[in-house]
Specification:
Helix content: under 10%
Radius of gyration: 21 Å
Structural class: mainly beta
Order of helices and strands: EEEEEEEEEEEEEEEE
Length: 262
């Protein structure tokens, strides 16, 4: 749990600094499909759910946000090789419901899409360019991909600005490496009558080592490291124009997770 001092909460001086404690619990189910024909088609699918638990130190902060925020969604990526050449076309989409889930509405729905053309430059190197779309935020943005691997021993994947990850195989079922990630999400309060923030933006930049072990269809993974950037913004008022920022300290970061793949 991170303990984060918050500013801009209009708390009386006698109440002391308000703090936000954030915990994250996540689950993911992977369902890949490979179709072989004239062109090799791969469909990567995943169902995921995340719960962000919010706890407060300081009674004046407790009315700003609900006790928990949720992200529930589906992600799919369809990739097809063009003939027998080095080019592949990949199209993906992610549909997410993000909010308190007290009163679900279309304003809690987020849709992200991407279209990439990738080319294998050699047996070890693959690169790609394309576009990505998100219906909340910047809209249409360029997308880049760089993937390098040395047989099955080590690999490097760069997807700016979302992820940079290096992995090395320590055994047939064990991997370890270093990773940098930009994490976060946008959440909306479902009830128009709810007091406090109507929208919450969470952003974290984290970096550090990780390790994973595969046991049958289950992969267990642990990440640890440092978060040099943490930003939590609450938006209120008409058009979510009024912004309050929780000024979070940088510090240690860790995550434990499990994924099931069939």
């Amino acid at each position: 749990m991170d303990r984060l001092p918050a500013r801009g909460l209009d708390a009386p001086a006698a109440a002391g600094p308000a703090t936000l404690g954030l915990t994250r619990v996540a689950a993911r189910l992977d369902l890949p499909v490979v179709v072989r024909g004239r062109g090799r088609t791969v469909l990567l699918q995943a169902l995921f759910a995340e719960r962000y638990g919010l706890g407060y130190g300081g009674s004046d902060a407790s009315g700003l946000l609900p006790a928990a925020l949720y992200r529930i969604g589906y992600a799919g990526l369809l990739s097809r090789q063009l003939g027998g050449g080095p080019w592949r076309i990949a199209a993906g989409a992610q549909v997410t419901l993000a909010g308190d889930l007290e009163d679900v509405g279309t304003d809690q729905l987020q849709v992200t899409g991407q279209l990439l053309a990738t080319r294998r430059a050699s047996r070890s190197l693959e690169w790609g360019v394309g576009v990505a779309w998100i219906n909340v935020g910047p809209g249409l943005v360029p997308a880049l991909l760089l993937r390098w691997q040395d047989g099955g021993r080590q690999r490097l994947e760069v997807i700016p600005p979302v992820r940079v990850e290096y992995a090395r195989a320590l055994g047939p079922r064990v991997e370890a490496g270093l990773a940098g990630r930009l994490l976060g999400g946008r959440f909306r309060r479902g009830s128009a009558l709810a007091a406090g923030a109507e929208r919450v933006d969470l952003v974290e930049l984290v970096a550090g080592p990780w390790a994973s072990v595969r046991v049958g269809p289950v992969t267990l993974r642990g990440d640890a490291g440092y978060a040099p950037l943490r930003r939590y913004r609450l938006r209120e008022g008409e058009g979510n124009a009024e912004v309050r920022t929780l000024d979070a300290r940088s510090g240690a970061w860790f995550r434990l997770g499990a994924a099931v793949r069939f």
